[in-house]
Each structure stands twice: as C-alpha cells, then as structure tokens.
Specification:
The protein is mainly beta. It has one domain: Distorted Sandwich (Deoxyuridine 5'-Triphosphate Nucleotidohydrolase, Chain A). Helix content is 7%, strand content 40%. The strands form 2 sheets. Strands 1, 2, 3, 4, 6, 7, 8, 9, 10 and 12 form a 10-stranded antiparallel β-sheet that branches. A hairpin with a 2-residue loop joins β2 and β3.
Length: 178
C-alpha cells in the first residue's frame, strides 16, 4: 500500500522512519521530495571497453563537490547525484524513487530506484541529462520524489548490503559473473 502524507509523518514521529534533514515542504501528498546533495559524479570517458565485472569503478568516475554557484553538466551526460537527506528505513517499509516531474520536463531522466526495507544512508541516483546543451545544477535543488510502501509484515533479513550507511556519492560496486 502506498503511504499518504499522514502515514509518512506518523512513521517519522514514531521514530521508525528517519529523514535528515527534513524540510517543511519535503513531505508531499504521497511521498517525500529530496534535494541534490553536495557531490556529483561524472563519468570519465576514455573510449575503452568498460568491464563492470573486472574494472575498478573509481577509474571510470570523478567525484566533485558542487560549488554554491552550481555546476555545469555537459549535454547528453549521465551523472550520479546524491541526496542531501540521510534516510533510515523501517523493516516493513520499502520505497521507490523517481524524478520530480518538474525536473523531468526539463529533459532529465532516471531509472526507478528501489530503497529496501532496513536501508540506511544517503541515496545515490543515476540521472541522465538528455539535451545536447549543457545544464547547470545546484545543491539543494529538489530533484527526487520518493514514495513509500508498507509491506505485508517485516522482512526476515533487513538490507545490509554494500551500500548500507553510504554518505556522499557512492560509486557502483563491481558486478559479479555467474
């Protein structure tokens, strides 16, 4: 069941869901808007074949602080953005992230991202700027809408994976071959 604003506020009051910082305008009718945090990761393009099962991810990204006067993203570029907010999820609630429609209408796209029950950390989201012209982004810009779903009971094993407790832009982990 998708949680409305009242249920989200109740989970926060009870201390079961934590979002820090939480701004007055963040909780919306059916979710929470989150803001661009202080860092951004740009891809490093050298033209070689990337093997996500072998390569060190840090060789393929550069992480930069976003200055107060913003940062320019080149046209047709995929970036990693981190939320300003640090989230702590209950064991019986999961979330789904998507871009706010206002930012999507400018030409940004992002794959839907699941936040697992028991996850704790800042959210790192891949965002694609689809226009050929450069665009400027700023810390604190509301870009992400997160909707919360109550699950039919608590999970047996809450999330404890590689991204647990992440702060700042977190690069992808190596993929495992079967």
């Amino acid at each position: 069941m998708l949680l409305p604003d009242r249920a989200i506020r109740s989970l926060i009051r009870e201390g079961r869901l934590s979002i820090d910082p939480l701004y007055e305008d963040s909780i919306r009718e059916n979710g929470v808007d989150m803001r661009i945090g202080p860092e951004i990761a740009f891809p490093i393009v050298r033209g070689e074949v990337i093997d996500p099962t072998e390569d060190d991810p840090s060789l393929h990204f550069t992480i930069r602080r976003i200055p107060d006067d913003g940062i320019t993203v080149p046209g047709n570029t995929s970036i990693l953005l981190v939320t300003e907010e640090y989230v702590r999820m209950p064991d019986d609630v999961a979330a789904l992230c998507g871009l706010r429609s206002s930012i999507a209408r400018w030409g940004f796209i992002a794959a839907p991202t699941l936040v697992d029950a028991g996850f704790e950390g800042q959210l790192t989201i891949e965002v694609m700027w689809t226009r050929p012209a450069p665009v400027k982004l700023y810390k604190g810009l509301r870009f992400l809408h997160v909707v919360f779903f109550r699950m039919d009971g608590s999970v047996e094993i809450p999330y404890s994976g590689a991204y647990q407790g992440q702060r700042g832009v977190t690069l992808p982990k190596r993929l495992e071959k079967q």
